[in-house]
Every structure is written in C-alpha cells, then in structure tokens.
Amino acid sequence: MIRAVAFLLCLALASALSTGAKAQTPPPRPVPANTLPARTHLILTVPLANAQTLAATAAAITNDFGVTLSAEWPLQSISVHCFVVEVGRQTDIDALVQRMRADARIRTVQRMQDFNTFASSKSARHFPVQQALVQLNAVAAQRISKGANVKVAIVDSAIDGTHPDLSGRVEALRDFVDDDRQGKGEAHGTAIAGIIGADATNATGMVGVAPDAELVGLRACWQAKGKAGHCNSFSLARALNFAILNHFDVINMSLGGPPDLLLGELIHAAIDSGAVVVAAWGEGDKAAFPASVPGVIAAGRSADTAIPAPSVDVLSTAPHNHYNYVSGSSVAAAHVSGVVALLLAAHPGLHANDVAKTLHAAVEARHGKPMLDACQALDAVVDKPFSCTQ
C-alpha cells in the first residue's frame, strides 16, 4: 500500500513538473476523443510556444484554411503542441493536407486515424486450469522473477481495478478518452491487465505472467459491450505522451491500425527514452501499426518476425468479477509484455534491442509450433543459471 501511494505521488509530481515547465502554454482542451470522427478531423503539430503565440497560430491557421479548432493538447515528450481541427464534409481533404504541409507554421499534419484492439472473448462458465502460463513456461520463470519494480503502461480500454485479481495490482488509472468511465472497466483492457499482472497472492482466480509488476492503465480506447476496442490518433498520442513523461519501463499496445506519423514519432521517443514497446501483430499476414515500427516488439502466433505467445482461448479477468476466454494477437502481446517485465526485474537497464534478441532466441518448437519460453529468456539474462524444468 505504501509503495502504491508513493507511486501515485511520483506520477502526480511528474505531471506537475511537466506542466510547470510549460506554464505559459494554453490549457489543454480535453474534448472526448470518441467524439472526433476520423473522416472529418485532422491533427496538426506546431512547436511548443507560449500561450499567446499558440493562440495566435491557431487563430491564423483556422482562418487561413477554413477549419474549426476542436481540441488541443501539448505533447511535451516530443516538444510539440497538437491541434485537432474539423474540416467541412465537402472538403477535398487530400488537397487541404498538401496545402497545410507547405505552410511553414505547421510542423506536421495528418488525417485522424482509427485503431482497433485484436481480441475476441467468450464466457468462461467454469474455471479451468490456466494453461497459458504452462505453454509459456512462466511458472518456472516466476521462481526467479515476478516483475517487481517494473512499471508497465497498458494503453488500452478501461481496466476494472476492482476485480479481485487486479485490486491492489493496478497502481493508477488515467483516462485519455472522455473521463466518463468513473472506474468502470471494459472487457479488453481488463483482460490484458489480468494476463500481464493478475495477483498471485490472493489464493483465488488466475495468476499473471508478471504478478509483481506495477501496472498502470492508460485508457486510450473505448469499447461497446461485445465489440472490439476502438481508439484514435488523438487518444493514443496523449496516452503515449504520458507514458514517456512518466518513464514507464514497458508500454503494452494490444491494438493496431494504419501507419500514423504522430504516433510513430512518439513511439520512437518512447524507445529512445528507454521504454520497451510491445504491440500486437494483428490478424493478417503483415504487421499492423505500431507492431510494424522498427524497434517495437511485435507479438503474434507464428509470424516469422513476431514473438509467438499464447493467443487462443486464454483465460483472463473480465469486468464485474468475471473471467472470460480471450483470443487474438492482443493476448499474445500481453504475454510478451509480462515476460519483458520478468526480464527487466532480473536485469534492470536491459536495452530494448537486447530484450528483443533475448525473446527471439528463446522461441522453441512446442507441439510442432513455435512458442516463447519465458524461463529460457530469463535464464539468458541472469548471472546464475537455474533449471527451467517445471
């Protein structure tokens, strides 16, 4: 409890310091991200400046290009200010983007992009033996490391922090969508959190891959009941900016979509800051963005360049104290993020490139299919060899 309180105080202090450093910037305009349809919105970035300069820039841009300012937010991690503008439904958006790119006041401009989570679920009426940890050989690995003191940012839909297997495990919850959940969890984020770090000490439910890791939920996606999670460039950019400023060790992104210039820049900034970014490969033959970004660890089932991890009918936490079976590359990414936390706890300061090499080297054939062996990966980064026999 003391550690959790201290962690929350550190988050608050870091946020206050970053706000103080840019005290002259205009206040954020927290428009709900799920009210900004991609077909009518663009995202522009300009260099950070004082409030008066940014206000003048926004007024000039909206006047010169005939657009309406919908939202704005500083992204201190890459030293830019973000404007979200709405365009008319009859506007030739491609032509408008080209004109904006030629304007010296505008650093970057792009369409708002949509992203989705990669998991399906079905109800678990009877609690079965949890097979995913066995497939991953995580039980043996947990004898050496459980992810203690490793900060994991879960960029996803809302996590149900009241679930018995997550209560006390989720250090903080931040909402970058609409601040309207009031602590209510959503299915995808709750499942991903359970796989990464469900409680191992409460003698009930399930156990996460890294049950001692410090989990923080960064809600950047929203989810209707029975539907996939949905996110956009604006909500994801704000969540990534927060994760970078607060120095998370691992950033899990069990989601994907089209290439995105702004998000790509933030992901590179996260990796440069020392974070390990793990993303879902997607359900196609080619990696979705951001799994396709160089330096990001992609997780999937059996793709040559992805880390294969359990992804079919995996038991995990669900809102309202329930459990569901979940499938998809989102699930694989959560397992890989958990293993990364085990590695970083055992070998703090391990670089993202070394983490990726270690994971790839620990992939073994199991029942004729490739599978990550968490214990073999951990054995490769600790000084004293140990047995991986369960």
Automatic annotation (TrEMBL):
GO molecular function: peptidase activity
GO BP, sorted A to Z: proteolysis
SUPFAM superfamilies with a match to the protein in the record: Subtilisin-like
One Pfam family named in its UniProt record: Peptidase_S8
Protein's UniProt keywords contain Signal: yes
Signal peptide from the UniProt entry: 1-23
Residue positions of the active site: D156, H188, S330
Source organism, top-level taxon: Bacteria
Keywords: Hydrolase, Protease, Serine protease, Signal
InterPro entries: Peptidase_S8/S53_dom, Peptidase_S8/S53_dom_sf, Peptidase_S8_His-AS, Peptidase_S8_subtilisin-like, Peptidase_S8_subtilisin-rel
Annotated Peptidase S8/S53 domain residues: 147-363
Similarity comment: family membership: Belongs to the peptidase S8 family.
Protein name per the record: Subtilisin family serine protease
Source organism: Rhizobium halophytocola
